[in-house]
Amino acid sequence: MQESYLSREFVLREEERQRCEVWTRVMGYHRPVSSFNIGKQGEHAERRFFVEGARTGLIPAAA
Q1: Which pTM value belongs to this model?
Q2: How far, in Å, CA of 58 to CA of 26, rounded?
Q3: DSSP state for residue 16 in the 8-state scheme
Q4: pLDDT tens digit string along 3-52?
Q5: Domain for residue 6, yes or no?
Q6: CA-closest candidate to residue 26, choices 40, 42, 8, 6
Q7: Total structural domains in the chain?
Q8: Does any domain span residue 57?
Q9: Residues in Cβ contact with 61 at an 8 Å cutoff, skipping those fewer than 6 apart
Q10: Domain range for residue 25?
Q11: Cα 35 to the chain's mean position, in Å?
Q12: Torsion angle, CA of 27/32/33/39, rounded to 10 degrees?
């Protein structure tokens, strides 16, 4: 069986890492989360993401 590149584990050394800047959409425009005040950063950290589940049995069978 051939190994998929997705199943490999990649390990970076500390000196190979770089900081990732997270942006989010606020009131119609995009801003980096790092520019938020401490309260807004906390609110952003508590957000939940919407995950749509599988849709089964919603389409009625043809008569």
Answers
A1: 0.48
A2: 34
A3: G
A4: 566 667 888 899 999 989 999 887 888 999 999 999 999 999 998 888 88
A5: no
A6: 40
A7: 1
A8: no
A9: none
A10: 19-46
A11: 19
A12: -60
